[in-house]
Design a protein that fits this description.
By secondary structure, this protein is of the alpha/beta class. It contains 3 helices and 6 strands; from the N terminus they run H-E-E-H-E-E-E-E-H. Strands 1-6-5-4-2-3 form a 6-stranded mixed sheet. A hairpin with a 2-residue loop joins strand 5 and strand 6.
């Protein structure tokens, strides 16, 4: 038990993610197949655990545009009930406890599809992220997961 606690303490002191996930739910489409991509973020971080939300959104939008995506920005929830629109959703939910930030971060790529008279609500194409504990913040984790999600889909 002591060895496990020492390992967790070592990983946490290095600011490494404690766990990560990467799931692709369908491989029949890539981000190139969508007419528009909306970058949205949900900031559930407290205590300075995520301080670069604007930078993360701009980074995602610039990376997507550089690969030919038509990027839609803004907080207004863009209607996804038109075929060909996808949401690139950045989420951080973290809190500070003393010196440590702990929580989750991730990117979900999802949409609603209408094909003929058939609707498939909330189709999730990719879900990447992890759990972390860090004395600083989750800024670099978020930028890394954005990069991974875009690389996965292009």
């Amino acid at each position: 038990m002591m060895k496990i606690l020492q390992l967790v303490s070592l990983v946490a002191s290095l600011g490494a993610p404690l766990a990560a996930k990467a799931e692709v739910f369908t491989t029949d489409r890539s981000l190139r197949d969508f007419s528009s991509v909306q970058v949205l973020s949900l900031d559930g971080a407290k205590g300075g655990c995520w301080t670069n939300m604007g930078v993360a959104e701009t980074y995602a939008a610039d990376r997507l545009r550089s690969r030919g995506a038509n990027v839609v920005m803004g907080k207004q929830y863009y209607s996804t009930h038109q075929n060909g629109h996808v949401i690139f959703h950045i989420v951080v939910d973290a809190s500070r406890n003393g010196q440590w930030c702990y929580g989750t971060y991730g990117v979900t790529i999802q949409t609603f599809l209408e094909e003929g008279d058939r609707q498939q609500p909330n189709v999730v194409y990719s879900d990447r992220g992890g759990y972390a504990m860090d004395q600083g913040n989750f800024n670099n984790y978020v930028l890394d997961v954005i990069s991974d999600a875009i690389n996965e889909w292009y």
